[in-house]
């Protein structure tokens, strides 16, 4: 095992985990403006973290199957998905929706968790096609998204959401860049 390749993969996955977690951070900023107890914030972060483990895991399993079946076409599809997700995140960051449509309680928390982790399914699909290390990927995605969710909720409690739009734009830009890198390797 080449240690330099492993470190490079970890850094790449951490950057991608951060990009995906910025969506949860952004939504957490808005949700944090709802009066939530620290116990609720803890459970919301754990729930988002679990969803950011399971969604990319399912995507990676499907992506690995596609990779063996389709080869280079699957790599292009995976890169295209990342580009699409990045553009979609950048586009949605410019919308004027400041108020959350649902509250993160009960069934609303389930909807909230799915909404911020759907993009991690597609990224997992792309990473499965690319052949990333499954356990490393899903653990990093889960831990980073959980921490960013907690951070967003806590910051949202204290501020009026001025960071949210910019963080989602940054996350989308990172996904867009990785999609382009996947399609056009250097």
Automatic annotation (TrEMBL):
Membrane topology, as annotated: Multi-pass membrane protein
Segments traversing the membrane: 6-29, 41-62, 68-89, 101-118, 130-154, 166-184
Chief localization: membrane
Location of this chain's protein in the cell: Cell membrane
InterPro entries: Mntp/YtaF, Put_MntP
A Pfam family it matches: Mntp
Function: Probably functions as a manganese efflux pump.
Name of this protein: Putative manganese efflux pump MntP
Species of origin: Metabacillus fastidiosus
